Amino acid sequence: MIPPLEGWPKDDDSPPVLIGLTGPIGCGKSTVAGFLRDVGGVVIDADDLAREATAPGSTALPEIRARFGDAVLDEHGHLDRTAMAKVVFSDAAALADLERIVHPRVRVLVDQHIESATRDRVPFATVEAIKLAEGGLADRCHEVWIVDCTPSTQRARLAGRGASADDIDRRLATQGDDLARRLGEDLEGRVRVRVLSTDGSIGETREMVEDYLAEALDRPVETR
């Protein structure tokens, strides 16, 4: 177990240890990110940055409108994420087109946050993204943590958030079977990967996070 990190800022200009956080929906990425934030880490949420990248006035919004039409915008001309999700969850080509528009812009925003963390001499930062590998962010990380759980736990957590059975089926079908395993295989040889199971208690999960973090911070950091 490690306490909240002390001695900030660092006394040198080395880059922070960058941890990529990903995994199937409903398996606890946000919980793990919260633990990392609790001990003093900077958490960069790619989903929040995707909202920023597609906000009114952004360069992405006109491209999205040209590709998908007014049906994915609300009455104020803002991106309707629920309507957009209904389109891309049932159409792989549409999802690829959306990612082509959004992912490059998110990478720019992530880089800005990493640069800020470096200037602030932060020891470690976490990039939380469900599409960490597909979005081109995994290769920028020193480690990637894949948060996983059993299908029954995953479904129970999604239902606890108010998702209907049909919505759960649709979201899980979009991700495909054995996503955590496929992510690990895709990243093998490219970056150090840790799999973090969240089927245990909150205390057990936090202890695992702290153990992994202690190991990550103890390793030499290379510029990526």
Report the strand count: 5
**C-alpha-based Rg, rounded:** 18 Å
What is the straight-line distance between the termini?
28 Å
The fraction of residues assigned to DSSP E strands is 5-15%
Number of helices: 9
For the largest beta-sheet, the strand count, sense and barrel status come to: 5 strands, parallel
Low-confidence stretches are: none
Q: Roughly what percent helix?
A: 40-55%
Q: What's the mean pLDDT score? A: 89
Q: H/E series, N to C?
A: EHEHHHHEEHHHEH
Physical arrangement of strands within the biggest beta sheet? 2-3-1-4-5
The chain-level structural class is: alpha/beta
- The global form is globular
Give the secondary structure arrangement, pairings included.
Elements: E1 17-22, H1 29-38, E2 42-45, H2 46-53, H3 60-68, H4 81-88, H5 92-119, E3 124-128, E4 143-148, H6 151-160, H7 165-175, H8 179-187, E5 192-197, H9 202-217
Parallel strand pairs: 1-3, 1-4, 2-3, 4-5
Helix pairs in contact: 2-5, 3-5
Account of the 3D structure:
With about 220 residues, the protein is an alpha/beta fold. It has 9 helices and 5 strands. The protein has a 5-stranded parallel sheet, with helices on both faces. It starts with 16 loop residues before the first strand and ends in a 7-residue tail after the last helix.
